[in-house]
């Protein structure tokens, strides 16, 4: 119950985070749109009512006539009809002649500051304590008995303008709110639909057997496919690790039973046998113990190689350093003190991408096989062939017969020449290293058609720097 609650909470948390992000974007967009709508509405209202003021002022200016050498105003009804479109606003007007003398209207109506040209002049000023908008237009006369200008000023409070701006803003906000709700609902449905592959993947993983590490189908959106691909690669590594562990346990249980029983039998016989046969029993016991030690060493080496292949990232390695390190370890002097081992390396670096420990382990097994089953002298060398690098071990013998070559390299595969002295894991370790770093193992006669050579072939590193120049 707790597990299901945790999973539900996790899914709800992801959905809530995405929805919160979408809602935040919509809120920010709504605030921006609201301010923009208010600015647009205020500008539209100002332009509309400014035209009304200009129309009323022009009607009044058009009604001015010159009578007996003086301007006379016959107030038109149409001017007040225009101003009456803003029924709740107060208005004021003033008609002034030459020198600013009031011809008609309100004396407290403000006049435009500065010179008024042929175009209407708008300005803002208070009207009985309320903010108002004013316009001044000029009508010029040039007659025989009168020459001069008449200024007509008309003002109106801003209540209708503000109501129009707020009405436009409210309309825009309502439309935007409806669209926002639709977007939120659509985003919720889209997000839930996009998360369905995750839910399906979670259900499939929950229903899987704990030991089922087969790849999952990488269907669905690209982002989910990338995640499934990464998970499949991880499960592949885990499967290889589990498989190596199973093989190690199985091999240990199967392969150690016989040598341990033989050691126990030899020890019991040594205790029960007469003293004359004791040296022979002890000699057999030592041989069995050495064989068991070799088997354990190679089994652990193979497990180490497989483990490092999945966990140690490949690094640039010079195969000459690997050959030198193996030879300087002097293990060959213990295995075959009388054998002659020759090192064949050039003066140029031969770089590969791999793990130095794994490569050294593989080459040690190549050299050990040559010393156990081949003929002296034995050569350990490094060379290149096109885009590949090679590290090889060659002995002077003819090698195993062709029918045996196909089987060599499998786990616990021994040739008849081993006579029980080999665990059958040497070339298996080499093949595991080759596969881990994209290489292969070749077996056959040497370049001159003489001797038997086993070669670990690996791709050369693409960029090896100055050391590999030329």
UniProtKB/TrEMBL annotation:
Q: For this UniProt entry, which segments traverse the membrane? A: 20-40, 171-191
Alphabetical list of SUPFAM superfamilies matching this protein: ATPase domain of HSP90 chaperone/DNA topoisomerase II/histidine kinase (SSF55874), Homodimeric domain of signal transducing histidine kinase (SSF47384)
Q: What is its EC number?
A: 2.7.13.3
EC class name:
transferase
Q: Where is the HAMP domain?
A: 192-243
Q: Which InterPro entries match?
A: 2CSK_N, HAMP_dom, HATPase_C_sf, HATPase_dom, His_kinase_dom, HisK_dim/P_dom, HisK_dim/P_sf, Sig_transdc_His_kin-like_C
Keywords (alphabetical) are: Kinase, Membrane, Phosphoprotein, Transferase, Transmembrane, Transmembrane helix, Two-component regulatory system
| Superkingdom of this protein's organism | Bacteria
Residue ranges constituting the Histidine kinase domain according to the UniProt record: 251-462
Q: Does the keyword Transferase apply?
A: yes
Q: Where in the cell is it found?
A: Membrane
Which reaction equations make up its catalytic activity? ATP + protein L-histidine = ADP + protein N-phospho-L-histidine
Q: Does the keyword Transmembrane helix apply?
A: yes
**One Gene Ontology term of the molecular function aspect:** protein histidine kinase activity
This protein's name: histidine kinase
- Annotated organism of origin: Meridianimarinicoccus marinus
